[in-house]
Each structure stands twice: as C-alpha cells, then as structure tokens.
Amino acid sequence: MDTKHEHITHDILIIGGGIVGMAGAMYAGRLGMKTLVLSEMSGGTIVLTDIVENYPGFKKITGQELADKVQEHAMEYDVNLVEEKAVKIEKCSESCYTVFTEDQSFHTKTILFATGAKHRELGVPGEKELKNKGVHSCGLCDGPMYRDKIVAVIGGSDSAAKEALVLTQWARKVYIIYRGEKIRAEPVNMRRVEQKMAEGKIEIISSTNVKEIHGAGKVEYVILDKEYRGSKKFVVDAVFVEIGMIPNSQLAQSIGVKTNAKGEITIDRKAQTNLPGLFAAGDVGDAEFKQAITGVGEAVVGVYSSYIYVNENEFVCPCNDEELAK
C-alpha cells in the first residue's frame, strides 16, 4: 500500500461520517481541536430511514435531511473531511496513532470510532445469489421497484415494523414474517401497523422462519419452516431482511480494542475504550438502546473526553515528520 503522508498531527480523527461522527466533529470543531473525519459514506445508515420522528427539535424529518443538517453544522467549523475508507491503524508511540486509507495516512492523538453497523443477513440458501434481485435491506431505497407487488419483511423489531410501513407506500401487500409470537414495535408504530392490518395492507406471520429463498434471476418464493395456509412454499416478489445489525468494529479490534460477544466496542460513560486515546460512539458501541439521539450524545461525550485527554497530556508523535524535525 503506497500512501501519501499528511504531516499534521490531529487532536482527534473521527472514523465515520454518519450523523454520529458528524455530531462529534461539530463538537470537536467548537472546542478548537484539529479535527479530521474519514468518511466512506456521508450520512451513514440514517439516510436509509424514510421519516425520523424521535429526534428532538424536528417533529418530522427525513433521515437524509437530518444527516445533511448535522454535516452542514459540523462544516461550519474548522473540520477537515476526507471521503475515504480507513483500512488500517498503527500505534506509532504511546500516545499517537497513524490511520491509513488506500491512498493516504494521517497522524492523530486520539480516535473516535463512529463506524456504525451493517445489516445482519439471514444466512439461508438463495440469499446471496438473489441479493439486490429481490433480497434487500432498505425499503426506502428499493421499495419503489415493487409497486403493486407482494413483499415480505423478515424480522420483528421496531425497525422491521417501520420497514413494513414504508413498503405499504408501494406494495399491494406486505407480510411481516417473524420467528417470535409478537412483533416488538414501539407503541406508535404498532398502532400504525394495526391500522394497515385493518386496511388489509399488512399481515403478520408469527412463530415462523424463512429457511430458503428461491427464484430464477429474481425472488419468486420462499420456503417457511412451517405451513402457512396449507403450504411451506410462500410466493413473494421481494424479501426485505430486518433482523438486526452487526457492528463495524473490525478496525478497532485490529489494534486491541475490546468488544463484547456481539462484537460491539465496550465503552464507559465517558465513551472511552480500554485503550488510552481511543473512544467510540453510536451503533458500533455496546449501549443497549441505540438511536440517532443516543449515538449523537455518546459522540459529544467522547469528543469532550478526547479534549480533556489531549489537554492533560504532552504528546510527542514520532510518526510525524514535523515532530522529528524539531
């Protein structure tokens, strides 16, 4: 990997350009920290959310609009944004790190991991082969392709309920297929699901798993583990998988950051990890309750912790050519 080296030591480098990372960048900028954000995908996963109704200050706003507003706020300050993926981290001294992309490297005193999470897969036959050919994980992105079609959402969380509600804008009928007895939607979304059920737009198939996905070039039907209306073969035009998330913590793990059994980064109330100068916030962390507002709060706490850490310590970064020249 032949990289260009930036000869600046940042106070904080934030990995992740979603709403959590950008909230952290905004606060770091306010604190006058030398701040760099490495962002593979601006906006993060919240841009896949149709309507956000639980973020203070906005009764109703799209995920894209909210992400744009937070990023715009962050960029009001002296924040450097590089739209590249962080691929490696090296510890170059007791107090400094070098973060690499494919083309560049950056020096920093602290790091905030705001890398989020990715959608969990079912792991059943046919899923990989038919990915984006009827197997999806974003109703807002791909739902319009299934106007007047029959689709299924697999999962029983609040996210699954919201996914089903979004899909009713286009689909003729949305089935929620859930392994449990009752879906676990927030009360307001449960009421909306029940209203759509009364209209015949949503139907819940409970205590059932999808075992296989079939189709010639596109999804045509799934196989259930129990009969529904006399058959385990269930005809649908698309499957939207909403069974949870997998934290993007591999980069943090590679340098010794501790994670729990789920792969989530373990943090304390100051958003600190087990390693000095390394912090984490949002969906990649081990907080039980994960929302945009809680992730943003964690990011601000992590940045403030970073600010205290930087200002209480004297740093010499031997990985920085400018430091070596002094």
Could you walk me through the main structural features you see in this protein, from its secondary elements to its overall organization?
Helix 1 runs parallel beside helix 2. With 326 residues, this protein is of the alpha/beta class. The protein is elongated. A hairpin with a 2-residue loop joins strand 15 and strand 16. It folds into 2 domains: 195 residues, FAD/NAD(P)-binding domain, CATH 3.50.50.60; 121 residues, FAD/NAD(P)-binding domain (3-Layer(bba) Sandwich), CATH 3.50.50. The strands form 5 sheets. Strands 1, 2, 5, 6, 7, 8 and 19 form a 7-stranded mixed β-sheet that branches. Helix content is 25%, strand content 27%.
Gross geometry: elongated
Helix content: 10-25%
CATH architecture of the largest domain: 3-Layer(bba) Sandwich
Count of the separate structural domains: 2
> End-to-end distance, in Å?
28 Å
Keywords for this structure?
326 residues, alpha/beta, FAD/NAD(P)-binding domain, 2 domains, seven-stranded mixed beta sheet, five-stranded parallel beta sheet, 19 strands, disordered C terminus
Fold topology:
Layout: E1 4-15, H1 19-30, E2 35-38, E3 51-52, E4 61-62, H2 63-74, E5 79-82, E6 88-91, E7 97-100, E8 104-113, E9 117-119, E10 135-136, H3 139-142, E11 150-154, H4 158-167, E12 173-177, H5 187-198, E13 202-205, E14 210-214, E15 221-228, E16 231-235, E17 238-241, E18 245-247, H6 250-253, E19 278-280, H7 292-312, H8 321-325
Parallel strand pairs: 1-2, 1-8, 2-5, 8-19, 10-17, 11-12, 11-17, 12-13
Antiparallel strand pairs: 3-4, 6-7, 7-8, 9-18, 14-15, 15-16
Helix pairs in contact: 1-2, 1-7, 4-5
